[in-house]
Design brief:
By secondary structure, the chain is of the alpha/beta class. It has 2 domains: 154 residues, 3-Layer(aba) Sandwich (Alpha/beta knot); 74 residues, tRNA(m1g37)methyltransferase, domain 2 (Trp Operon Repressor, Chain A, Orthogonal Bundle), CATH 1.10.1270.20. It is built from 8 helices and 9 strands. Helix 6 crosses helix 8. The longest helix has 19 residues. The structure holds adenine.
Length: 244
């Protein structure tokens, strides 16, 4: 997968995306991430990239010209027929979730546009953006942290990026439920015992216990997820019992 990030602050990505799993994925050439400084594309002799909003109001707006020219520079490097998803990070966008992460992980080319100040000129959005995406209902100072969050969530779903393909099969959100709790050695930590079923070796019992715990935590913390999750008859029985 090729990811291009159009930003005024390329150095903001050096920490989060240059460590651990995402670093290894780049070293193994499964993932190529490049950061392009929007400011290098401005026509303005003072390298200005923002201006006052028409109609008045607080804050500055990033101008369309350097963003569109920076995008064009990146798009020109693609092969004919390549259709990148162009994601503008914005609190007004569709809210990012695991389903969108899965969808994006199947793309060959992703371009992220990171805005700053009050946002970017609407004409740049209208001209080049395919997806306006928010990472949640709060406002950050720019799109860099949201882009890093989305890149991390998407990159780990690329086959081969995680050590074992199965390690994301059962995790939170995979089946639409929150994940059951995990325990590791020792079985007794300063008097705190691991649930005995996990030591039993009985995989049927372990699976049932984990499913019950998933349902329990989802019911408690995110009952909204239960409406969309695929539930078996046994799940529904367990939920009925838990609700009582
Ligand atoms: N830019 C500022 N806040 C944001 C958010 N919540 N999601 C995506 N981009 C943003």
């Amino acid at each position: 997968m090729n990811i291009r990030v159009l930003t005024l602050f390329p150095e903001m990505f050096q920490g989060p995306l240059n460590m651990s799993i995402i670093k290894r994925a780049q070293e193994k050439k499964m993932l190529d991430i490049q950061y392009i400084d929007i400011r290098e594309f401005t026509d303005n002799k003072h390298k200005k990239v923002d201006d006052y909003p028409y109609g008045g109001g607080a804050g500055m707006v990033m101008t369309a010209q350097p963003i569109i020219d920076c995008y064009q520079h990146v798009a020109n490097q693609l092969q004919e027929g390549d259709k990148p998803r162009v994601i503008y990070c914005s609190p007004k966008g569709r809210v990012f979730d695991q389903k969108l992460a899965q969808e994006l992980s199947k793309e060959k080319h992703l371009i992220f546009i990171c805005g700053h100040y009050e946002g970017i000129d609407q004409r740049a959005i209208d001209e080049v953006v395919t997806d306006e995406v928010s990472i949640g209902d709060y406002v950050l100072t720019g799109g860099e942290l949201p882009a890093a969050v989305m890149i991390d969530a998407v990159a780990r779903l690329i086959p081969g990026v995680l050590g074992q393909a199965e390690s994301y099969q059962e995790e939170s959100f995979y089946c639409g439920l929150l994940e059951y709790p995990h325990y590791t050695r020792p079985s007794n930590f300063r008097g705190l015992e691991v649930p005995s079923v996990l030591l039993s070796g009985n995989h049927k019992d372990i699976d049932r216990w984990r499913r019950e715990k998933s349902l329990e935590i989802t019911l408690k913390r995110r009952p909204d997820l239960l409406e969309k999750a695929t539930l078996s008859d046994e799940d529904k029985q367990i939920l009925k019992y838990l609700k009582k």
